[in-house]
Write a structure and sequence with these properties.
With 612 residues, the chain is an alpha+beta fold. 53% of the residues lie in helices and 10% in strands. It folds into four domains: 86 residues, Alpha-Beta Complex (DNA Primase, Chain A); 139 residues, Alpha-Beta Complex (DNA primase DNAg catalytic core, N-terminal domain); 70 residues, Pheromone ER-1, CATH 1.20.50; 153 residues. The chain is built from 26 helices and 16 strands. A hairpin with a 2-residue loop joins strand 1 and strand 2. The two termini are 37 Å apart.
């Protein structure tokens, strides 16, 4: 795993990068004793079960049984490889990583991501220069001023301009001798159909660079300045840009979101810029895609309250409808600001200002209340209208997992349309019954979550693998001792305890711990660097995260019990062999004798150790 990067550099990065600092950038952590707790970024939960240990430099979620060290966290959260995670941390802490020892293929794989990020940075500078100094950029600057954008906001978000013409960017990178094939991977240029060359993706558009949480430019959005279509054009998916996991403005908003505990979500680039320009900096925007589960999980690390600021037209209502299932699955309470007809967040702020917007935000409706209001306005309260209202809302209501909330919303809907609650409840049960029959494709199930449903309580399943076998619990306790109280390791080695383990997974973890020459300095995060298997990492984190209190005496008691049970097992095996001989069961006898032979080898090995 670390062949790409020298071991001494891996250790230097690990010892420099504090896991609490790294995790706290995306998870809202609170101190709890020696550790920190937060809502897990890898599954939906309301009660924090995600634990980070600054002492052991590891994390573990007791809800979904995911664990690891600082590298593992970045790999899973950002969907990157170990070398990419290591290099990201190295850059952040000014640690230089040599490349001489890498093969050409390793260098290519490692450097592609860095090259794409560098290309994006170069492109941003190009677009920026065209806006500020290019002759054709004057029209774009005039357009931005007409939209009310001031210089500070343009600078803060590094807005630019893609000039007219088909090959401005193509020629720009050609002069820098950057291969067109690599630039194409960034999504900035497109291959012509006849393969005769390339052309610029963005032409005569205002350019909005898209940053990730680490302030890296990962993609771009472009907007025309007239009525041309498409109005907005975004970068395609690339090795560094994933729309489902990216939010416009998150790099500028994350600090304010954490300070305020809330976040506003808008749909457009200019909507987002307007909020920030008017002092509402805890705001982000989706990127040409509907709100996703990944977006919600990301925002949960920064804010407890989510406020959707959609247009009050049909498109805004549809966006709210699409969002409700995601918020329900993410177990996030969200509300929605209803703006007057004909206004979007951008136009509303410039006409009415900050105070009016904040006042509207204070009156934000819960999503279900908003949907009820919208459905009643749309269909009316005639008999036919009431039927349509209930028909439209039965699936959103059925998607609410909290029984008390669902009951309250059913009551609100029943009172609003003057229908008996039992009649509304019957419609909801029809939807639930269909889901229970296996209608996995139901509108509110997991359509937007490519991972499907994520069950909690997996912890028992992961640790359960370490409890199989005759001495499973004792074997698990011994590994816990090795991870939490490394002072006992010399005695475990001397008594050859691991040789008698039945659980291969636990045995391999113990053997990894023994690879460290200085047992007194064994770090759980170091052990994790030696393995690639995710389940093993999760198991190690689970075993190490406990707060057990160990001393030599309590450890020796467990080791003695382990050896005693093993000796009893040997005696029982001899009795089974005698019984098999008596019954003339040759097949069973062969198996038992083979097992006895293996145990004899281990016993002999132990005797030789004692004689040294």
């Amino acid at each position: 795993m670390s062949n790409y990067i020298p071991e001494d550099k891996v250790s230097e990065i690990k010892n420099t990068a504090d896991i609490v600092d790294v995790v706290s950038e995306v998870v809202h952590l609170k101190r709890s004793g020696k550790n920190y707790l937060g809502l897990c970024p890898f599954h939906s939960e309301k009660t924090p079960s995600f634990t980070v240990s600054p002492e052991k430099q590891i994390f573990y979620c007791f809800g979904c049984a995911t664990g690891g060290n600082v590298f593992s966290f970045l790999m899973k959260h950002d969907g990157i490889s170990f070398p990419d995670a290591a290099r990201m941390l190295a850059r952040r802490h000014g640690i230089d990583i040599p490349t001489q020892a890498m093969s050409p293929d390793q260098k290519r794989r490692i450097s592609e991501r860095e090259n794409l990020l560098a290309i994006n940075r170069e492109a941003m500078d190009f677009f920026r220069q065209e806006l500020l100094g290019g002759a054709s950029g004057k029209r774009a600057m005039a357009y931005l001023k007409k939209r009310g954008m001031d210089k500070e906001i343009l600078d803060s978000f590094n807005l630019g301009y893609a000039p007219e013409g088909w090959d401005n960017l193509v020629n720009f990178f050609s002069k820098k001798k950057i291969p067109h094939a690599l630039v194409e991977k960034s999504g900035l240029i497109v291959s012509r159909k006849n393969k005769s060359g390339f052309y610029d993706r963005f032409r005569d558009r205002i350019i909005f660079p898209i940053f990730d949480l680490s302030m890296q430019v990962i993609g771009f959005g472009g907007r025309v300045m007239d009525d041309s279509m498409p109005k907005y054009l975004n970068s395609p998916e690339t090795p560094v840009y994933n729309k489902r996991r990216s939010l416009y403005g998150i790099h500028r908003a994350k600090k304010k979101c954490r300070e305020s505990g809330s976040v506003y979500i808008v749909e457009g680039y200019f909507d987002l810029l307007s909020l920030h320009q008017h002092g509402i900096e805890n705001a982000v925007a989706t990127l040409g895609t509907a709100l996703t589960t990944e977006h919600v999980q990301l925002l949960k690390g920064y804010a407890d309250r989510v406020v959707l600021v959609f247009d009050s037209d049909d498109a805004g209502i549809k966006a709210a409808l699409r969002s409700i299932g995601i918020f329900m699955r993410g177990e996030v309470d969200a509300s929605i600001i209803v703006l007057p007809a004909g206004y979007d967040p951008d136009s509303y702020l410039f006409e009415f200002g900050y105070e009016s917007f904040i006042n509207a935000a204070s009156k934000a409706h819960g999503i279900m209340s908003f949907l009820i209001d919208s459905a009643v306005k749309k269909h009316g309260l005639s008999i036919e209208g009431k039927i349509r209202v209930i028909s439209e809302l039965k699936e959103p209501l059925a998607s609410i997992n909290d029984n008390m909330k669902r009951s309250l919303y059913i009551k609100e809907l029943a009172e609003r349309v003057s229908i008996d609650e039992a009649a509304v409840l019957e419609k909801i049960r029809e939807v639930s019954a269909q889901k229970n029959k296996g209608a996995k494709g139901a509108k509110w199930s997991n359509d937007d979550d490519p991972r499907g449903s994520r069950k909690t309580g997996v912890q028992d399943k992961v640790q359960g693998k370490a409890l199989n076998g005759k001495w499973g619990r004792l074997e698990r306790q011994i590994i816990v001792m090795m991870l939490q109280f490394p002072q006992i390791i010399p005695e475990i080695t001397e008594r050859n305890i691991l040789d008698f383990f039945e659980d291969k997974g636990l045995k391999s973890i113990g053997q990894l711990v023994l690879k460290h020459k200085d047992y007194s300095k064994v770090q759980v995060s170091d052990v994790m660097n030696l393995i690639d298997d995710k389940e093993q990492k999760n198991l190690i984190a689970s075993l190490a995260m406990g707060e057990d209190i160990w001393d030599h005496e309590s450890c020796r008691v467990i080791l003695a019990r382990f050896e005693s049970i093993r000796n009893r097992s040997e005696r029982k095996l001899i009795e089974q062999i005698k019984a098999a001989e008596k019954d003339n069961d040759l097949e069973l006898l062969a198996k038992l004798l083979n097992k006895k032979q293996k145990m004899a080898v281990l016993s002999e090995k132990k005797k030789m150790t004692l004689l040294r």
